[in-house]
Design goal:
Number of helices: 4
Mean pLDDT: 76
Helix content: over 70%
Shape: elongated
Order of helices and strands: HHHH
Structural class: mainly alpha
Length: 86
């Protein structure tokens, strides 16, 4: 999990301060907006692409799951869609 993301996420969960939730959401939405998939042309073997997709996807799926109960996250559908279309 990216360090800034987990830091903001834990601070929000512990303190309830929405500023931390908003910072975590900014990272999640930025990732969902820019990540369109794993480029298969980067690796000589397809297994590396699948490994990278699983490793990177998990690092954002877990925090997104923890943020699911935050009412102020309008990007929930975006992150959900990007996690299914990898």
């Amino acid at each position: 999990m990216p360090v800034p993301l987990i830091s903001w996420l834990l601070r929000w969960k512990i303190s309830g301060d929405e500023d931390y939730a908003k910072a975590a959401i900014k990272i999640l939405n930025g990732w969902a907006k820019t990540c369109k998939g794993v480029n298969y042309k980067t690796y000589f073997d397809d297994s590396h692409r699948l490994l990278a997709a699983g490793f990177i996807g998990y690092q954002f799926a877990a925090p997104a799951e923890l943020m699911r109960d935050y009412e102020g996250w309008a990007g929930k559908p975006r992150i959900s869609k990007s996690s299914r279309n990898g």
